[in-house]
Amino acid sequence: MNQRPRAILFDWDNTLVDSWATIHEALNHLMRAMAMPEWSLAETKANVRQSLPVAFPPLFGARWEAARDIYLARFREIHLDRLTALPGREAMLRRLAGEGLYLGVVSNKTGELLRREVAHLGWSALFGSVVGAGDAAADKPAVAPVHLALAPSGLAPGEDVWFVGDTAIDIECARNSGCVAVLLGDGGAEEFARHPPHLSFADGAGLFRRLEGLRSPPPRPSS
Fold first, then answer.
1. pTM for this structure?
2. Domains along the chain with CATH numbers
3. Mean pLDDT of 27-44
């Protein structure tokens, strides 16, 4: 891992943008509609990891599709007004893109909503691909969205691709696909006991400093 990556894939929610308040409000709006106990913010942060088609059936049983529709309707109403980039993330992305790295997003947020948020922030041109839940044959931690996100680059998952995220499901996805698993943020050690990251940074500045200290990869062979 002493060589700069050719591509970096990022998780979205709470890796590049602050989404917890919006997710929490939409979720509790749903809980009230379903006459179920509301969650604390801590419970939301601990439990929201998977895509809706995976996470909702165990919670809502046969009502999961109705629950999905209620949640998404409320989320659509509020998410763009409350969307906020995490500190330093836009500068980090623009510097990385300016250095010629291929950047992509792999998220378990519904693809349509994800791309609306990327466009709202004016970041669409920074990413070669933006892959959300439902875009690939399976969602994180499966490897399918990683392959889809890398397809425009011509790169295969491997040691010259970093996958950056803030939760265990991101690190598991990175390891499943053979990419370098990078934790960005202050995750608890217990969450990552089964799937530890290869690299860990408290913030985007630390990640960028590490990249600056790595040697450039050799040129790709011409086809």
1. 0.86
2. 7-18+85-212 (3.40.50.1000), 20-82 (1.10.150)
3. 93
